[in-house]
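Quick start: read one record
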Amino acid sequence: MRHLKRSAGFVIMLLAANLVFAQNGTTPNLSYDFEQKRLECLLALNKDSVVQTIAPNSEKYLLLDFSFVGCRGCMKELPKLDDLGQELKDKLDIVIVWNAADYNFWKSYVINNYSRSGYINLCDSEGTISSALKLEVAPSYLLFDKEGQLLKQWKGRLPGSIKKYME
């Protein structure tokens, strides 16, 4: 799990997010500076129905994969993520944010069939995060540096190598 320096504002946001999750169980949250193209954090449910915080850290780059449950192209790209995760495990964290209409369906189907040990799977059950980021194609990938700065965005497919963006 990634950690942020805990400012008072962040703690309040986290408490508010947990309250929202407790009320409806599904609404993810995002803190992203669109002007600076910088990720502060995102919060979404993991397979254990726990709110998980994803945020930049100073140790690894972050690749966010926004996929859609039932998307054949998204499923075809998963082996590439496996290879990438193995190749760059000391330099890159991979998080798949699944857009799924129903959390329980996502949990039973995706986690049972497509969960990989090399990366984190989260549920964006209402498409809130991908909509906020104006992502209209699945899969879409966002690569962030160690401070949360967006380095590169891809739609539809990962390129053969992303190492050149991580230097």
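The helical segments are 8-24, 72-87, 103-114, 128-132.
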